[in-house]
Amino acid sequence: MKIINSFISCSIFMLSLYGFGMIIFEEKQDGKRWRNIVIFILGCILHTLIVFYLDNTLKTMSSCLLYIVLFKTMFNLRFSKALFAAIIYVILAIIPDFIVTGTTIYIFNVSKEYFYEYLAGGMICNFFVSTLVIILSLLLKKILVKLINYDSTNKNIIFVSILTIIFIAFFFYKFAVEYKISNDVLIYLLAILAFMAILFMLLKEKFDNDGLKSRYDGLLEIMKTYESDVEEQQTILHETKNEITTIRCKINDKEDNTAIIEYIDSILGDKKTEKDNMLKYSKFKYLPSNGLKGFFYYKFMEAEKKDIAVSVNISSKIEKSFLGKLEVNDFKQLTRIIGVYLDNAIEASSQSKEKKLVIEVYLTKKNVDIIISNTFTGKIDDDKLGKVKFSTKGKKRGHGLLLVKSILSSNDIFETQNEIIGNLFIQKLTVKNISQNSKKNKK
Hints:
Elements: H1 2-25, H2 33-53, H3 56-75, H4 79-107, H5 112-119, H6 123-139, H7 141-148, H8 155-178, H9 183-237, H10 239-252, H11 257-282, H12 292-305, E1 309-314, H13 328-350, E2 356-364, E3 367-375, H14 401-410, E4 414-421, E5 424-431
Parallel strand pairs: 1-2
Antiparallel strand pairs: 2-3, 3-5, 4-5
């Protein structure tokens, strides 16, 4: 009879797990309904056996392992995502569990002995806990979806997540047995808070990097369109020949000089701004027209708006280099690195006295060197030179350098180094011409 009651209680609790998954992952059940029903029933049986035959920490760890398996199989998740979903679910379930326990003991004056002997884990308690889990899932849906539905196999996140589950298990059952803040409980609680803080920082870094990727990828798409528009403007400039021909005809027809001069002035007035912009854009003419040319030009104009003197030197050999034939993923990563370096260089140089920025692109043997130099203000710690996280922008600055570090560690076609000459910070990015057959991505 006890095992039947335990099965019913566990089934009620497992409904909250399934409901949590349906809310967060919005899983469609077309063609999966019977499969998931079978998995759910097997999960209920396994959870009953765990609750009935295991105790304390071992019971919690086994339950958490079961939750991971159920999330993975029912919602087709990677292990890392299923693990993180299980952590969120356990934390979410602990809150209503404490609410129900505290309410029963302190408001309804039920003794702890009676509660843990007859009520804890029973059908009534599990019903209220499960209901509160579903309510919390609905209320916090947007936050939970953002936390769980991220594309990451970060080993640090997985490792910290496992440690968090372990300490939650120790804390929960130590507290459940004594229901008071003892030294052991306090240690477990502090450990949980520490791991959750680390987990939060790792996730924040991940979200920040994703935001930067989205920003630079979006900018790249805009620049491709912009390049097309500029090249159309270059075509339009050929109309100038027609206008010159018209002037020649006016001279041959011996028109009044004043009329000719007025006509020329009208042409110059229309073309001056357009010509200035085209001259600036022509500095990047040797770069490939795949978004990179427009990307550099956009950053060039951004720097000029901050009164920065920008010098551009791009080798004509770049035009026929492999830079325009990079794979899509490599090219996106290249623009992300350049975007980070240019953003940092623009901000650092805008705060310096000289306000200078130099952009150079050369073909050296089979590789391409992209060199970004900027003036800066302040003293530099020589020990920090050569480190990926180093920036001339000061403490808590250097946005996106963690993203650059991530790219450099995962793709070996890029190498970077930096140095300081006087008050000039020089950042060099080397793009290697590695063929498809010999290319080896670091995992």
